[in-house]
From TrEMBL:
Keywords: ANK repeat, Repeat
Keyword check for Repeat: yes
SUPFAM superfamilies on file: Ankyrin repeat (SSF48403)
InterPro entries: Ankyrin_rpt, Ankyrin_rpt-contain_sf, Dendritic_Spine_Reg/Scaffold
Protein name per the record: Uncharacterized protein
Ranges of the ANK repeats in the UniProt entry: 1-32, 33-69, 70-102, 139-172
Record flagged with keyword Cell membrane: no
Pfam families assigned to the protein according to its UniProt record, in alphabetical order: Ank (PF00023), Ank_5 (PF13857)
């Protein structure tokens, strides 16, 4: 089950979370899906003032590279939910941009299927240029495959195409 701290996602802010942490709430408690309070916090889109909450959780020892039952990290979920500021905060706090989920999906895979415009242009020398826009998951799908299967966010797709995504890429099933 979920703890009250897991509710930091939408119903409590950093002040309430601080009270819970000071009272002994576990910052790395997991629910039945392996989600930590940090996973859930980055999944919200505009409900709370997120950066102070993330800073509080991280300073209390939240694992920025914790994985849920699918191997997704808080950074993956921040990208999926279009939380650019949360993603940048997590990267600054040590989140591994190269970490893959259990199916081989990486940060760009999650960003590609986000319903929100997430990806910034990839200017030369930015942290994003180190990511492979043609990386394949375990089924041979690239981020643009995920974009086609996801919410069809053309803004994210356009950024990946400008960064050199292969429009003729085929997965292991020839699609």
């Amino acid at each position: 089950g979920r703890t009250i701290l897991h509710g930091a996602r939408s119903s409590i802010g950093s002040d309430e979370a601080s009270l819970l942490l000071n009272a002994g709430a576990s910052v790395n408690a997991v629910d039945r899906n392996g989600l930590t309070p940090l996973h859930l916090a980055v999944s919200c889109h505009g409900y709370v003032d997120l950066i102070p909450l993330l800073a509080l959780l991280v300073s209390a020892g939240a694992d920025v590279n914790a994985t849920n039952a699918n191997g997704s990290t808080p950074l993956h979920l921040a990208a999926l939910h279009g939380n650019i500021l949360a993603s940048e905060y997590l990267i600054g706090a040590g989140a591994d941009m190269a970490r893959l989920d259990l199916g081989g999906g990486g940060l760009l895979h999650y960003a590609a299927c986000s319903p929100y415009a997430f990806l910034p242009p990839f200017p030369s020398g930015s942290i994003w240029t180190n990511l492979d826009v043609n990386a394949r998951d375990k089924k041979g799908r690239s981020p643009i495959h995920w974009a086609a299967m996801g919410m069809h966010n053309w803004a994210n797709l356009e950024v990946m195409l400008e960064a050199g995504a292969d429009t003729n890429a085929r997965d292991h099933q020839g699609r």
